[in-house]
Design goal:
Glutaredoxin
């Protein structure tokens, strides 16, 4: 007996849905596997803007937006912080308290704790600035696969840095959930954060 057209179509639809779901899971598994190589310990230690020890593991109740930069950065850092300010506004007052922006300076020679605190206060984000010895900072940079390079200039600053512009979206377990790129919109970032919070 030949199957009825409606029943056959339903069978194809169910099979297709199952295939799409499997592909979706495979994609998520592949992404999770890729990001799992970024700081697999899910922790690091540096010094915060008030001179106190900071451990990522002490913020397991928060979503962390981590990025590496420096206060004299002419473009990437202020642009990123301005975008994150927009993300916080989109999240609203209740959820924004559960999100911490962590700014790790790659220019510890110039970026003191006091300067970090003052700079970050200009942006409407729940944030903390971190510093440390060059070895300590480099260890964290390496753990997340980030990069930076000092570039000598003839400007009054003397030097600048070329550095990666990724923001690492870290879940409450300390694991990298997503990589935020410079061209990602604030609305997209806010949706990713809300997905973790919910």
């Amino acid at each position: 007996m030949r199957p009825r057209p409606r029943a056959a179509a339903l069978a194809v639809l169910i099979a297709g849905s199952a295939l799409l779901a499997a592909c979706g899971r495979a994609g998520e598994d592949a992404r999770a596997s890729q990001y799992a190589t970024l700081n697999p310990s899910g922790d690091f230690a540096l010094t915060d803007q008030d001179g106190k020890p900071f451990r990522l593991s002490a913020h397991r109740d928060q979503v962390v937006l981590l990025f590496f930069g420096y206060l004299s950065c002419p473009d990437i850092c202020p642009t990123t912080l301005s975008k994150l300010s927009r993300v916080y506004k989109l999240l609203g007052p209740e959820r924004r308290a559960k999100v911490l922006t962590v700014f790790v300076t790659i220019d510890g020679k110039r970026d003191t704790g006091t300067k970090l605190k003052e700079y970050l206060s200009y942006f409407d984000v729940n944030s903390v600035g971190l510093t440390g010895t060059q070895e300590e900072v480099d260890r964290v940079v390496k753990a997340y696969g980030a990069s930076y390079k000092r570039v000598e200039t003839r400007s009054a600053l003397g030097y600048l840095y070329d550095h990666s512009d990724l923001v690492y979206l870290i879940d409450p377990r300390g694991k990298v959930e997503n990589l935020i790129h410079a061209d990602d919109k604030a609305e997209e970032i806010a949706r990713d954060v809300e997905k973790i919070l919910s």
